[in-house]
Amino acid sequence: MFDLRYHAISLVAVFLALAIGILLGVTIGDSLVSQADRGLRESLREDVVSARDAEQRAEAGLDRREELIAEIAPTLIDRGLQNESIAVVGVGPLPEGFEAAVRSTITSADGSLDSVSTLPIEPDELRELLASRAPDLSDSALADRLARTVVEGGEPAARLREEDPSTFMGAFEGADAVIFHGVPPGEEGAERAQPWEAALIGGLLDSGVRVVGAEQTPDPKADLGEGASPAYQAPFFADQGIPSVDNIETAGGAIALVYALAGADGRFGYGDDADAVLPPGPRVVR
Known about the structure:
2 domains; Rossmann fold; alpha/beta; single chain
């Protein structure tokens, strides 16, 4: 009887010890997990705050850079296009604000905007317009003729303006250089338009004028899809052998456009494909 009672008490003691151990283990474990969780949350919070501060500092630096460039832009482009007549040729409609930005830059550099031609993506539409004078022209020959008309101006350009004033606008008195805008990558018809755009650029170059590709900074709010970056026309322009500016609506873009029209080569702007923000000429801003 004594042995049985002793044995029972021993078992109770063992189970009681186990229960106490489990309770202590759970309590300690919960405490350790809670501490680790708090530490992890605090670390993540610090990382987020640090990243936000770094982003704000970077944005402030970019804003300050733009302010500095805007301050010196008038000096850098003053008389940069003096007595120069510039034409704009676009395939497809020009983006909102594009013509205004170009006109402002040209005027600030003492140049003049001679004409703006917004050509259709499909050359057949123009071929129909010119059917009475050039019914059987190939795309290349049609591009050459249009290029000469834009560059030389005169009576042929005046007739085009009369026949389609929404496509051909301006004085058409002749151009010393051309700003070219193509269909932005990713937009409908962009790939289909490239052979036509290449033929037009080739025709303009064959006419003996300077040609500069130009575009605006893509809309930062545009839905590009996860992980996608904005696409620029700069690589296509480089393939055609012409310089380009991808941010003409900014002060830096205005400087780059004037210098490119005046002879600077390269891809300028803020896009991933740009060689530099500004051409080698203006050394005031780094």
